[in-house]
Specification:
alpha/beta; 4 helices
Length: about 100
C-alpha cells in the first residue's frame, strides 16, 4: 500500500496531465523527454491559455503543436495544421508567444 503522500503526488500529476488533454489541441515533444523541462511546461501552459480562450477555441479544428529541443532553420513553422516550434526554451516568454501566435 502506498503512503498518503505518494498517492497525493500521483493524483496531482494526473490532474496536471489531464488539464492539457483535449480532442482538438495536441502537444508533442521531440524528444519525448523535452516535455519534462520546466520551461517547456510553462510554455505549454501559456499556449493552452491562448488556444482555450473563447475567441480562439470556438474556431479551432484539430491542432497539433510540436516542440523541438533542437534549433531549426527558423524559430517556428506552420504546415498542414501543425505548428512546429524549434528550441523554445532558448527564447524569452514574449518571443515564444510572438512566434507561436504568428505561426497560429
Amino acid at each position: 500500500m502506498q503512503a498518503p503522500d505518494e498517492t497525493e503526488k500521483k493524483s496531482k500529476k494526473i490532474e496536471k496531465t489531464k488539464s492539457y488533454i483535449n480532442p482538438l489541441v495536441h502537444f508533442h515533444y521531440l524528444p519525448k523527454s523535452y516535455e519534462e523541462k520546466q520551461k517547456t511546461q510553462i510554455y505549454t501552459a501559456l499556449l493552452s491559455a491562448f488556444y482555450y480562450s473563447d475567441p480562439i477555441y470556438n474556431k479551432l479544428e484539430t491542432l497539433h503543436t510540436y516542440f523541438y529541443e533542437e534549433k531549426g532553420d527558423t524559430r517556428g513553422r506552420m504546415k498542414n495544421k501543425k505548428i512546429h516550434i524549434f528550441s523554445p526554451t532558448n527564447m524569452k516568454a514574449d518571443e515564444f508567444l510572438a512566434v507561436s501566435i504568428h505561426e497560429f
